[in-house]
Amino acid sequence: MATKSKAYAAAVEKLEAGRFYTPTEAVALAKETGSKKFDSTVEVALKLSVDPRKADQMVRGTVMLPHGTGKTARVIVFANGPAAEAAIAAGADEVGGAELIEKVAAGWTDFDAAVAVPELMGQVGRLGKVLGPRGLMPNPKTGTVTPNPAKAVEEIKGGKIEFRVDKHANVHFIVGKASFSAEQLDENIAAALDEIVRLKPSSSKGRYIQKGAVSTTFGPGIPLDVNVIA
């Protein structure tokens, strides 16, 4: 633990007190302050001026990161027949109908995304208590309820991420690995920010993105200059 504390403290010392960084500057620092023992995940956190309790201010969407996340997502698909066969061919990690629904209902959640064909959503809907809190419930708004699950699987495994504002009006999302080039991380962040800004609710008042930070696994948060991103 002492070693981790020293590494964290050393990383914090590289940040200038009171300074806010452009995404490009934050990326450079994230790569510099990330763990040297493993390939850290790079994440972005934003505080939005929305009220998630109001339906018209729920910010939720997806974006295809130009350079992926650096991780191959584990995707399951609720489907039968030809749609199931196509999903398997597309690389889905597990595919099934009633038997897969029962497996998840029993508490199995060892996957990163779930896709379902519309005709099974009546049955998949009862998995809300298991999938909902983990942000894994299939939803037509994010393309995970679809008659073409194979395409959804290909997109998710190809770097498509989903984001959703939490009850505190925060949005968290992965933008890659510390081993990515600075340019790749820059482009991934830009793509995600563009989509989040595009989805700004018309009822949101004041500055939309109030705060932001870039960080790596076990690394300090690097404050973003929101004036240049919103």
What does this structure look like?
The structure is a single chain. It contains 8 helices and 9 strands. Strands 7-1-8-9 form a 4-stranded antiparallel beta sheet. With 230 residues, it is of the alpha/beta class. Helix 2 packs across helix 8 and helix 3 runs parallel beside helix 7. The model has no long low-confidence stretch (mean pLDDT 92). The protein starts with a helix and ends in a 7-residue tail after the last strand.
In short:
The protein has 230 residues and is of the alpha/beta class. It is built from eight helices and nine strands.
Radius of gyration: 19 Å
Beta percentage is: 15-25%
Q: Tell me the overall shape.
A: globular
Report on the biggest sheet. 4 strands, antiparallel
Provide the succession of SSEs.
HHEEEHEHEHHHEEHEE
Uncertain runs with pLDDT below 50, 5 residues or more? none
Strand order of the largest sheet: 7-1-8-9
**Arithmetic mean pLDDT:** 92
Properties at a glance:
four-stranded antiparallel β-sheet; alpha/beta; globular; about 230 residues; three-stranded parallel β-sheet; 8 helices
How are the secondary structure elements laid out?
Elements: H1 2-13, H2 23-33, E1 41-48, E2 60-64, E3 75-78, H3 81-89, E4 94-96, H4 98-105, E5 113-116, H5 121-124, H6 128-131, H7 149-157, E6 160-164, E7 170-177, H8 182-198, E8 209-216, E9 222-223
Helix pairs in contact: 2-8, 3-7
